[in-house]
Amino acid sequence: MILIFFGPPGAGKGTQARLISKELNIVHLSTGDVLRDQLINESKLSIELQKIIDSGQLASDKIINQIVSKRIEQKDCKKGFIFDGYPRTLSQAYFINDYFIKNNLSFDYFIDFKLDEVSIIKRITSRALVESRPDDSDEVIKTRLEEYYKETKPVLDYYKKQYSSIYQTIDGSQEIQKINSFLLRLLTKTWFK
User: Fold this and answer.
1) Strand 109-114's sheet: what is its strand order?
2) Which of 6, 48, 110, 123 gets the most CB atoms within 10 Å of its CB?
3) How far apart are alpha carbons 142 and 118 in whole angstroms?
4) Which domains does the chain carry?
5) Which residues pair with residue 167 across a beta bridge?
6) Higher-confidence residue: 77 or 33?
7) Do residues 178 and 11 lie in contact, with contact meaning Cβ atoms separated by under 8 Å?
């Protein structure tokens, strides 16, 4: 099973991806985790990524695409995986679609977590207090949201148009367990067809 979880920061996609990956025994591929794992490896790609990070720049779509495609070729992804935070741009979406076509892979579901901005800010700032994350200030959150809507909204529109039959919207304001139960029913119904 191959899934993509979309949603602005704080909408609950990471939480659900972690739960679903355990429950369905598939890999949770958070872009941040995948990049951090790449840095641990001693490779040409990890050296290039470290230079970019050290310079304060963001990794290009080309580098992220390389890292993600190498990651999904690993044995633990054969049973399935959840993309969490990827693809973030249209360039990444086009790349992964081509990659899937060439490698005879297909998506099972696109899950889009929706949550209003006020709730997002409230949720992330309370999480920042609990987890002592000073980078989650109101200003930073608003910037991240602007980037999400500017970069990822076109990706959502693209997938919604291309794959409307497997595109599902979720109200991220619901309780974690309620969302999780809904997702498990939806996904296991698909899995065991």
Assistant:
1) 27-30, 81-84, 2-6, 109-114, 167-171
2) 6
3) 10
4) 2-191 (3.40.50.300)
5) 110
6) 77
7) no
CA proximity to 99, closest of 129, 61, 147: 61
E strand segments, 46-183: 81-84, 109-114, 167-171
- Portion of the chain with pLDDT greater than 90, in percent: 62
Q: What is the pLDDT of residues 122-170, one digit of tens each?
A: 898 888 777 766 666 778 788 888 889 999 989 999 999 999 999 999 9
Identify whether the C-beta of residue 104 lies closer than 8 Å to the C-beta of residue 170. no
Q: What is the mean pLDDT of residues 5-29?
A: 95
159-164: long-range contacts at Cβ-Cβ below 8 A with a sequence spacing of 24 or more? 159/4, 159/6, 159/93, 159/110, 160/110, 160/112, 163/107, 163/110
Q: pTM for this structure?
A: 0.88
- The residue to which tokens 């980078």 are assigned: 135
Q: Which residue has the tokens 């109200």?
A: 171
User: How long is the chain?
Assistant: 193
Which residue reads 């602005």 in tokens? 8
